[in-house]
Amino acid sequence: MKIKSRYDWSDIKLYQIQEIDTLPEFDSKLDMMIEQLSILIDTDPYEIKKLPVDDLISEFHKWEFINETPEPKAHEKIKVDGVKYKLIDFDKMSLAQLVDIEEYVSDGIIKNAHKILSVLYLPYKNILSNELKNYEPNKELEEGLKSLTLDVLYPTLVFFYHIVRVYLEGSQQSLEMKIEKMIPNMTKKERKQLGTLRQKLKRELEKNGIG
What does pTM read for this prediction? Predict the structure, then answer.
């Protein structure tokens, strides 16, 4: 069992938070905390239960920071498995990115955090270029993001959440106008996707009391 004197977001990887998010309901709060701790320090719950009570309480206190939300701060650049990626310009997202993000968010932000981030970060065209490649789903990036620590990823996810909230608080008319500009260059399949996206956005706006 590896125990440190203190912990911070750099001690937690994305996949660990996703595992915690999938835990079932517990009758006992203590059992829940032990299961969470077992994931965070990668130790069998049975071993944790053998700790002296004072040591167990001390260990719980070290992780209290996870109940706090970090300041929203987007990390412009990240490196995953030796490849550099850059955060996209939100105003220049393609329809494909909008559709994928909407799908991932509606299915659960924590569950799909690695997928959402794989849409937000794109690789450079080459090592000498500042231009980014066009978006396409990237399974390797998705899996690689799961092993990145939350000192990098969590503030970006919080930043993304704030962007989405502002996006949804805008008027439905402005959203329609923004998407209308994309229509001339769309394929038949993309137009169909647009119709579905509009319906989902409308439901989101209505759910938030907007529009």
Answer: 0.75
